[in-house]
Each structure stands twice: as C-alpha cells, then as structure tokens.
C-alpha cells in the first residue's frame, strides 16, 4: 500500500506527518500494526527517520486508543518513534498547525484536539505560539545517570516530565551522552517519563537537553522546554501568583524556544515550525 507523508520539524524535533483526512488510510490497522508502521517510518536508516509521528485525522473519524472528547474538527494523533502513544507533544502542535495551514485547512489561528485536551495555536509569520494550558507542579523527585544523582521537579504538561537543574549539560560532563534512559522513580512515573537536564545561561535564560520517553535523546522537546521553564521559575520564586507574565528563553540543541507563564497560569510555547518534504511511501 502506498500513502502520503509530509516531513517537518520544530527546532529539529522531527516528525513524519500522515495526512489521513478521511480516516481511511491508517484506520484499518490494528493498534499493533499501527505501532509497527510508526517504528518503520521513524527508523533513521531503513525508514524516513523521525522522533515521532503526527497523524492528521478528523476527530470524528478517529477510532483508535484514547479517543478524545472534543468538538474540534482535527485531532493530532501523536505517537513516539517506538510506537507508543503520548498524551502531548509541544513541538508537534506547531508542526501540526503549520501542516493544516499549508494545506489550506486552517488559517493563522486554530484549535485542535490532542490526547491532553484541545489546544489553540496562533501564528505570527513563521512563529507559532501554542497555549498548552496550566502546568501541574507535582513536587520533587530524583533522576540519575551513571551514578550521578540530581533532584528534579515533577512537572505535568499533559505528559510527564522530570526537570533537573545541573551545573552543565555538556555531554563530556556528568550528564553524559544520554544514550540510555536516565534512572527515574518508577513509583512516581509508572508510565515512564521525559527527563530534562537544564543549566542557567543568564537571567531567565536556560539551556537544556532531554531524553524523551519513547524516542531517546532528541534535539528539542516543546513540553520539556515548558517543564524546564516551570522548574526554573519555581526555583526563582516565580511559581506563585504573578502580577505580570514571565518569559524564559530555553535553548535546545536544535534551536531556541520562548516559554511564557501567564498571570492566569497558562503556558505559552513559541517557536518555529517547518515543513521540509512531502512524498509517498510504502512503509
Ligand atoms: N517532543 C515532544 C514530546 C513527545 C512525547 C514524549 N516523548 C512523551 O512520551 O511524553 C514535545 O515537543 O513536547
């Protein structure tokens, strides 16, 4: 079977988009067949290569796991490179919105469904800003790599994060090459976790690396950048009531994101979204 794909990325967190505009292209697959297809597509040697898949489907046509309850026309069916489902993908929301705009299916503002609820995005030129809703600060936890241990903030952005402040994110330092999953508390995160390491660059400016659940180390993670911002802001005493919005610059290996925590407790993630290729595949 041959079907269409589009390749895109947000700060080099890359995705294969699968337009499934009437639900008939991938809808006939069982869950395990779909997971196999995702792994084949994301394979960086034998496939197209991606950190995850964004299936573009009408909410009413989606009949798979975690069916959203939403009046929004479109559903972002996100899957990690290992075939697992995730609730949310921050960079993915921008790339998904850019696809809908470029296909003439949306304008500069759109609300669509995700497994973590409806999300609204607005574009200004090639920068999309996603309103990812209120973060949940769930206390302190711990992560470790190669017998180095760090306290981490447990932040829920719709999906789970452990954000650890470190002296340096240099791969030559204690954080290392992040080939393997950092050790985390499985009682706190029974369904796995995305682990971020961040270091201070300047006031309200941090740099991070991430090991993503289901994808390994990636060049960027939007919800991870939000979790890092929330952890840094909490450490800076800004997690309580704010009388003005607070913005942090978050550098990732693939670029730069801006994260704003508003006075009404919403997290706004701003960054680029680029579509770089389209074609057909038999994978
Ligand atoms: N890269 C994404 C997060 C994708 C999901 C994550 N790996 C998970 O399993 O929760 C982002 O930009 O937020």
UniProtKB/TrEMBL annotation:
<comment type="function">
    <text>Catalyzes the stereoinversion of LL-2,6-diaminopimelate (L,L-DAP) to meso-diaminopimelate (meso-DAP), a precursor of L-lysine and an essential component of the bacterial peptidoglycan.</text>
</comment>
<dbReference type="Pfam" id="PF01678">
    <property type="entry name" value="DAP_epimerase"/>
</dbReference>
<feature type="active site" description="Proton donor">
    <location>
        <position position="89"/>
    </location>
</feature>
<feature type="binding site">
    <location>
        <position position="13"/>
    </location>
    <ligand>
        <name>substrate</name>
    </ligand>
</feature>
<keyword id="KW-0963">Cytoplasm</keyword>
<feature type="site" description="Could be important to modulate the pK values of the two catalytic cysteine residues">
    <location>
        <position position="212"/>
    </location>
</feature>
<feature type="active site">
    <location>
        <position position="89"/>
    </location>
</feature>
<dbReference type="InterPro" id="IPR018510">
    <property type="entry name" value="DAP_epimerase_AS"/>
</dbReference>
<keyword id="KW-0413">Isomerase</keyword>
<dbReference type="GO" id="GO:0008837">
    <property type="term" value="F:diaminopimelate epimerase activity"/>
</dbReference>
<comment type="subunit">
    <text>Homodimer.</text>
</comment>
<feature type="binding site">
    <location>
        <begin position="222"/>
        <end position="223"/>
    </location>
    <ligand>
        <name>substrate</name>
    </ligand>
</feature>
<keyword id="KW-0028">Amino-acid biosynthesis</keyword>
<protein>
    <recommendedName>
        <fullName>Diaminopimelate epimerase</fullName>
        <ecNumber>5.1.1.7</ecNumber>
    </recommendedName>
</protein>
<feature type="binding site">
    <location>
        <begin position="212"/>
        <end position="213"/>
    </location>
    <ligand>
        <name>substrate</name>
    </ligand>
</feature>
<keyword id="KW-0457">Lysine biosynthesis</keyword>
<feature type="binding site">
    <location>
        <begin position="90"/>
        <end position="91"/>
    </location>
    <ligand>
        <name>substrate</name>
    </ligand>
</feature>
<feature type="active site" description="Proton acceptor">
    <location>
        <position position="221"/>
    </location>
</feature>
<feature type="binding site">
    <location>
        <position position="80"/>
    </location>
    <ligand>
        <name>substrate</name>
    </ligand>
</feature>
<comment type="pathway">
    <text>Amino-acid biosynthesis; L-lysine biosynthesis via DAP pathway; DL-2,6-diaminopimelate from LL-2,6-diaminopimelate: step 1/1.</text>
</comment>
<comment type="similarity">
    <text>Belongs to the diaminopimelate epimerase family.</text>
</comment>
<feature type="binding site">
    <location>
        <position position="194"/>
    </location>
    <ligand>
        <name>substrate</name>
    </ligand>
</feature>
<dbReference type="GO" id="GO:0005829">
    <property type="term" value="C:cytosol"/>
</dbReference>
<dbReference type="InterPro" id="IPR001653">
    <property type="entry name" value="DAP_epimerase_DapF"/>
</dbReference>
<feature type="binding site">
    <location>
        <position position="159"/>
    </location>
    <ligand>
        <name>substrate</name>
    </ligand>
</feature>
<dbReference type="GO" id="GO:0009089">
    <property type="term" value="P:lysine biosynthetic process via diaminopimelate"/>
</dbReference>
<feature type="site" description="Could be important to modulate the pK values of the two catalytic cysteine residues">
    <location>
        <position position="161"/>
    </location>
</feature>
């Amino acid at each position: 079977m041959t079907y269409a794909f589009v390749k895109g990325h947000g700060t080099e967190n890359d995705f294969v988009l699968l337009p499934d505009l009437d639900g008939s292209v991938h809808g006939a697959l069982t869950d395990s067949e779909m997971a196999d297809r995702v792994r084949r597509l994301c394979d960086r040697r034998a496939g197209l290569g991606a950190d995850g898949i964004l299936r573009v489907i009408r909410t009413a046509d989606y009949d798979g796991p975690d069916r959203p309850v939403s009046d929004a026309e479109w559903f972002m069916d996100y899957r990690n490179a290992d075939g697992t489902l995730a609730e949310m993908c921050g960079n993915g929301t921008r790339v998904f919105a850019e696809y809908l705009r470029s296909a003439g299916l949306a304008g500069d503002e759109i609300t669509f469904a995700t497994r973590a609820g409806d999300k609204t995005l607005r574009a200004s030129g090639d920068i999309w800003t996603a309103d990812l809703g209120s973060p949940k600060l769930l206390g302190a936890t711990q992560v470790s790599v190669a017998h180095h241990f760090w306290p981490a903030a447990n932040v829920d952005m719709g999906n789970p994060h452990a954000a650890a402040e470190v002296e340096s994110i240099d791969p030559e330092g204690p954080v290392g090459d992040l080939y393997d999953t950092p050790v985390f508390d499985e009682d706190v995160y029974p369904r796995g976790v995305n682990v971020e390491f961040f270091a201070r660059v300047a006031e309200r400016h941090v740099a991070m690396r991430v090991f993503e659940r289901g994808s390994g180390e990636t060049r960027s993670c939007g919800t991870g950048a939000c979790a890092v911002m929330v952890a840094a802001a909490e450490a800076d005493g800004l997690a309580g009531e704010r009388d003005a919005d607070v913005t942090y610059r978050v550098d990732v290996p693939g670029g730069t994101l801006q994260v704003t925590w508003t006075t009404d407790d919403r997290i706004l993630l701003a960054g680029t979204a680029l579509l770089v290729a389209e074609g057909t595949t038999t994978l």
